[in-house]
Design goal:
Alpha-Beta Plaits, four-stranded antiparallel beta sheet, 358 residues, seven-stranded mixed beta sheet, 2 domains, membrane, antibiotic resistance, binds magnesium ion, ABC_transporter-like_ATP-bd, binds adenosine-5'-diphosphate
Length: 358
């Protein structure tokens, strides 16, 4: 049986750009799926198709069991959406915006009023509640947009990068709200550029790149695939980077990523604090002076390097290269040489760009 959100073979092309290149998704009822990927991966396009805002060129989708292409109006009644395209009326106050949404969803005037006050309070907007939304800062608008999506708890929710642009306190607040929503039975698809966020909220994660799902699984499965924890070292002397790399290779379970300009080396490891102590001793023994060392959990970049052989911020540049495009992206230079090493290794075993079942 298909899940509460189900997509098969979604394709969407904008001119030369293949925004979606055969996306399959299935989100079981009452669970959270994180769609994780860098800028331009196709996250928003996926959400727009699933929320009936955009027609795919090919493929099909069911939301709450309803065909998105054939019965868009029915789908709209079953979903909530927040994100880059959700509408906040500039001229209404925050409170009026929320009350209007409540009434659109057929709450009584009294319930709509109560719900609005409650959400304004939760999102720290009570003081600004009676000012027009156009006077709000970016962060406040973001919170109002999220509050609007939460006025009613629809059976299926979509959130497109809900925490982008939020400060840590508000991000935490939103995470709490999302967890509460899901406990209430809502099925949620959220997009994010942060592994940490998908990790916190999602039951399953789909990693997308270039309009394709390149891996899916739980956060733990993805992290295991990326080699789990990292040792990260900043060496004092750039001339000692090569020596430090040799040491790390001896302890690591994969490629050593090197960022020359920050003198930072990173390697996936198995083993915690004791291993760290051994690395320090060995570096010391080899006369490599360090400015900083630590253990950290894998980031989206680590996932990307492991899966695609390129760092997330290089995705646009790599795409241009792969597609033989004319390279419209001027801001993607300065990648790490470690990522390049990983890419070369990946090309050798021919596993690049195939979906990984983790
Ligand atoms: N309306 C559009 N017209 C032209 N290109 C678009 C349009 N929407 C998205 N794209 C392109 O499709 C690709 C995927 O975009 P998007 O789904 O917004 O990615 P994400 O949300 O993951 O950052 C990008 O290359 C983007 O530039
Ligand atoms: Mg987007």
């Amino acid at each position: 049986m298909p899940g509460a959100i189900h997509a098969e073979g979604l394709v969407k092309t904008f001119g030369e750009v293949k925004a979606l290149d055969g996306v399959d998704l299935d989100v079981p009822e009452g669970t959270v799926m994180g769609l994780l990927g860098p800028n331009g991966a196709g996250k928003t396009t996926t959400v727009r198709v699933l929320t009936t805002l955009l027609q795919p060129d090919r493929g099909k989708a069911l939301v709450a069991g309803i065909d998105v292409l054939r019965h868009p109006n029915e789908v709209r009644r079953s979903i909530g959406l927040s994100g880059q395209f959700a509408a906040v009326d500039e001229y209404l106050t925050g409170r009026e915006n929320l009350r209007m949404v409540g009434q659109l969803y057929q709450l009584s005037a009294r319930d709509a009023k109560r719900r609005a006050a409650d959400l304004l309070e939760r999102f720290g907007l009570t003081e600004a509640a009676d000012r027009p939304a156009k006077t709000y800062s970016g962060g406040m608008r973001r919170r109002l947009d999220l509050a609007a999506a939460l006025v009613v708890s629809p059976p299926v929710m979509f959130m497109d990068e809900p925490t982008t642009g939020l400060d840590p306190r508000n991000r935490q607040l939103l995470w709490d709200v999302i967890q509460e929503l899901v406990r209430g039975g809502t099925t949620l698809l959220l997009t994010t550029q942060y592994l940490e966020e998908a990790d916190r909220l999602a039951d399953t994660i789909c990693v997308v790149d270039h309009g394709r799902v390149i891996a899916r699984g739980t956060a733990d499965q993805l992290k295991a695939r990326t080699g789990g924890e990292r040792v990260e070292v900043v060496v004092h002397d750039p001339a000692r980077i090569a020596a430090a790399r040799e040491v790390l290779l001896g302890f690591g379970k994969g490629e050593v990523a090197i960022e020359e300009h920050t003198r930072r080396l990173t390697v996936p490891v198995a083993g915690g604090a004791r291993l760290l102590a051994e690395v320090i001793r060995e570096l010391d023994g080899q006369g490599v002076e360090i400015d900083d060392i630590g253990l950290r959990r894998p980031t989206l970049d680590d996932v990307f390097i492991a899966l695609t052989g390129h760092a997330a911020e290089q995705a646009a540049a790599a795409k241009n290269k792969n597609d033989g495009g004319d390279g419209g992206d001027g801001g993607s230079g300065g990648g790490s040489s470690g990522a390049k090493d990983a890419r070369d290794a990946r090309d050798d075993d021919g596993t690049d760009r195939k979906e990984a079942s983790v």
